[in-house]
Design brief:
single chain, 280 residues, mainly alpha, Arc Repressor Mutant, subunit A, Tetracycline Repressor, domain 2, 14 helices, globular
């Protein structure tokens, strides 16, 4: 190995050490309360060494974000290249996103509180601004790839308006992010408040969205899945009358029987999709 190649490897290794240290510091302190000095101590390098690779704390944060989004984007594209059926593809894409969230939990939480618009205002160096633009570009590309998988499900389901498919993709994405936050570190609180298990709530939340976007795959007719198809209340305008007619509210044994019938029909037509759900 030449001296030049050895130096390149050493630089790459030191850069990765700094990035890993930055991720740990951001996880503990948050972006706004982290400093280059803290990161240098975590990486066991001099402060000046960090500035040989990155121009600021924000530059470090944006670099971490860009690299992880790029890996997720690559993973999405690899899945889409397999030629899977629409629902199977979306489940694989969601599984990849779950893995990304699990691997990048602390950075993801930091992102939620960082405020990208605020970061952009304080960037001064050209390299930092370019890095910010790269994060925005990669984020847009990643969402477009995600939306492509959602759109395939929409085309096969009840969402036939192309203009609404981006909305459906954004709603599912936002819903999964919110679910992830609710069932994160303080999952015991989630269980106490809702009475639900946080262990498989991500998968259940996905199924909830998929039933709305592609009801036929779950043995549900489009008309029964649409709130607009619900009959008008016959018991007046009171809460009891509205509840008894709402398609998503249980109404005693009859509703339970209908739910079991729909569930059985769904399994006969498509197999048990819940059981096929990828688990973390």
């Amino acid at each position: 190995m030449s001296v030049q190649e050895r130096h390149r490897r050493e630089r790459r290794a030191r850069r990765e050490t700094i990035l890993s240290a930055a991720a740990r510091v951001f996880a503990r302190r948050g972006l706004e309360h982290s400093t280059i000095g803290m990161i240098a101590r975590e990486a066991e390098v001099a402060v000046g060494t960090i500035y040989l690779y990155f121009s600021s704390r924000d530059d470090l944060f944006l670099t971490l974000t860009a690299e992880r989004i790029q890996r997720l984007n690559d993973r999405y594209r690899e899945i889409q290249a397999r030629g899977l059926a629409p629902l199977e593809e979306l489940r694989a894409v969601v599984s990849a996103y779950f893995e990304y969230l699990a691997e990048s939990r602390e950075l993801f939480l930091t992102q939620q509180s960082a405020g990208y618009a605020h970061i952009r205002k304080r960037l001064k160096h050209r390299g930092e601004i370019e890095r910010y633009d790269t994060v925005v570009k990669l984020g847009r590309e990643c969402f477009e790839v995600w939306a492509k998988s959602v759109s395939r499900v929409c085309e096969a389901g009840s969402v036939d308006d192309p203009n609404r498919r981006a909305l459906v993709a954004a709603v599912i994405w936002a819903g999964l992010n919110g679910t992830f936050l609710l069932t994160g570190r303080d999952s015991g609180f989630f269980r106490e408040v809702t009475g639900l298990s946080p262990d498989d709530f991500l998968e259940q939340a996905l199924d909830f969205h998929l039933k709305a976007a592609h009801p036929s795959a779950f043995g549900i007719s489009a008309s029964s899945a649409s709130p607009r198809a619900a009959p008008k209340p016959r018991n007046g305008n009171g809460a009891a009358g509205r509840a008894s007619q709402h398609p998503h509210v249980s109404n005693g044994a009859n509703s339970k029987g209908r739910a079991e019938t729909n569930s059985n029909n769904s399994k006969e037509k498509t197999g048990d999709l819940t059981a096929a759900m990828p688990h973390e």
